[in-house]
Amino acid sequence: MPVEPERLDFIDGLRGMAILGVMMVHTSEIALRPLSGWMLKIALEATHGVQLFYLASAFTLLFSYHTRKSDHCFRISDFYIRRFFRIAPLFYLAMIVYLLVDGFEPRYYAPNGIKWWHILTTATFTNGWFPTAITSIITGGWSVAIEMNFYLFLPLCFKYVTTLNRALWFTLIALMFHLLFCKVAAPILLPLFPPNHHYLIFFFLNILSLPAQIGVFGLGFIFFHLFFSLQPPPVKETDPARKSKSLIFFMIFFYLIAALLTTEFQLRTYILFPRHFVYGIAFLIFAYALSLYPSPIFVNQLTKRIGEISYSMYLIHPLILKMIKKMTGGITIPFHQDIRFLLAFGSLVLLTYALSSITHTYIEKPGMALGRRIIAQMEKRSTAHHSLFERYR
């Protein structure tokens, strides 16, 4: 039997909070913006839930690898089969639904409309390298493309990013590579697009591409090595020393987030690092605090369940949000706009949670089970061939 990694509650909690952040920013962008300046700023900055996803993903990938590599039957091909059948089935269904709902007309990230090659690159997860295709069909599909492309480099990461020191170097090199990528790619790409479409290049180079986000994956590697190198021996989560240490990191995190929400701090820090990377550092601190003490405020049955079905919620919620906007467009609700925003956000969470519970059960789980069956069949054939070879050797 293949060795399966332990499911960590605080990782599910992190994913749950990440998807709630993404849903909050999309509520403010697609359906209804809050009126208060402070609430609007929080809603818009919640877009960095994607970076929390990446950090948790990098941690989980290393954790799963180190758990499974003790199995003598482990093959890197098993990893790719497992990840493909984890992501692809629901992603392909979402592609079909989005095309049926939105059609092929021009849109913000595809100003000339959807062409055949948009569909081809999205289906092969290569849309991450084309500014007009990376998020043209599925709202938020850019992050899935980046994740899938990052998997191509994981065997090298498994082999070489083996210590905390190497994880730090990986992250530093990733940041320098992003700067080089922008420097080289900008003068090549900008002449290919009319001036009114240059915003596509800006988003592609600075946010919606693997080079822009690979440093955040590096922070996930740092978190993994911190978790296993600095953690004390297993003790009860109620241990006072553990809780005190966690509280210190929580305080640092909240201070950094408060500072990030001020314009002055933004201007000072973003000269050195991209904004999403600075948020990634804050999430690294937060994740380590939760690993020390999974506070029930953040890690509870609800956030863990939301984290478990977060992939379905990520792909489905923009469709539900459009439905909410269409159904309530002509309705006047006699409340302050901030209240209406919170009502829209709450409705989105409830409806998305209900539908995602279904897709997780009937699409995601069968897809993962199919991947496991394929791996088991490959192992069975490999064992049979090995036995036959030994018999006639």
Give a structural overview.
By secondary structure, the chain is mainly α. It has one domain. The chain is 74% helix and 0% strand. The protein has helices at residues 9-31, 37-45, 49-68, 76-102, 116-123, 141-151, 154-160, 164-189, 198-206, 210-230, 240-260, 263-269, 275-292, 301-308, 310-328, 337-392. Helix 1 (9-31) packs across helix 14 (301-308). The chain starts with 8 loop residues before the first helix and ends with a helix. The model has no long low-confidence stretch (mean pLDDT 87).
Task: Please provide a brief summary of the model.
The chain is mainly alpha-helical.
Order of helices and strands: HHHHHHHHHHHHHHHH
Q: Which spans have pLDDT < 50 for at least 5 consecutive residues? A: none
Based on secondary structure, the structural category is mainly alpha
Report mean pLDDT, rounded to a whole number: 87
Task: State the total count of DSSP E strands.
Answer: 0
The main pleated sheet reads as: none
User: N-to-C terminal Cα separation, in Å?
Assistant: 27 Å
Rg of Cα set: 22 Å
* Overall structural domain count: 1
